[in-house]
Amino acid sequence: MLDQIKGLHHVTSMAASAGTNNRFFTDTLGLRRVKKTVNFDAPDVYHLYYGDEVGTPGSVMTYFPFPHIARGRPGTGEVGTTLFSVPEGSIGYWTDRLSKAGVDGLKTDSAFGENRLHFAGPDGDGFALVEVKDDPRAPWTGNGVGEDNAIRGFHSASLRLRDEGATGELLKYMGYSQIDAKDGVTRFGIPGGNGADVIDIETMPNIAHAHLGAGSVHHIAFAVENREKQLEVRKALMETGYQVTPVIDRDYFWAIYFRTPGGVLFEVATNEPGFNRDEDTAHLGEALKLPKQHAHLREALEQHLEPIE
């Protein structure tokens, strides 16, 4: 069993509009845009990152906004819901805030003893806020949400699968332990993790496979401290039979990817070097940053990409 993984690093999804996506995460949810860059493989498309003040691993939601992309079809083989941690007693505040903002899909419930507020993103994305007592992570409060209510980072993510077995065993190999199981959901967690250290598997044997599109999660990334730990994880996964990519430099972290038995694309990303490697912390996410291989495209991209504040 591995011990290098400490929880989530980031979650990356698809969107149809960069401007709408940016307003939702900064104005409505109060997160900070910590990086404005482009998709490594499609540089005419933004890659936007939102999180806490510095984009701490375990707080970062990222998006590829493909203009006019068709909406995804929910189903199995994907991340179903991405859940954020908020302070205990703040669900009422968020219900009022999201309702006034016209957010769809508002519904409160509880699971595993935790109060939750479900809501939909602009493209039908599945989200929830979870009340967590004494989450020690510092929130970003620069966009008008006070410290008593602000998002602390991820709480968890749920995987929708037709069968739990092989992916559950994979999570255990990655250092997760089964915490509980109820109503078709099995909960896994990492003791002493980074706060974003819970994964739920929802078993849905009769649901069709998901189709990727706007509102779909493209991949989910798990955090390791550094490149040395990442190479240890890569070696162990390959020895177990997984087809893992070479290490890829993503400017703000190094990444490896592999497809899970249930169909979800997993990434393992390093905490280093971080989002302030090319911008001062006070100005994160303000300028358009380009990977070096796309630097020569700056003039064309600045004319092509949708302006966002």
From TrEMBL:
Transmembrane segments: none annotated. Gene3D superfamilies: 2,3-Dihydroxybiphenyl 1,2-Dioxygenase, domain 1 (3.10.180.10). Residues 7-132, 153-271 form the VOC domain. SUPFAM superfamilies: Glyoxalase/Bleomycin resistance protein/Dihydroxybiphenyl dioxygenase. Pfam families: Glyoxalase (PF00903). It comes from the Bacteria. InterPro entries: Extradiol_RC_dioxygenase, Glyas_Bleomycin-R_OHBP_Dase, Glyas_Fos-R_dOase_dom, VOC_core. PANTHER family: RING-CLEAVING DIOXYGENASE MHQE-RELATED. This is VOC family protein. It comes from Neorhizobium petrolearium.
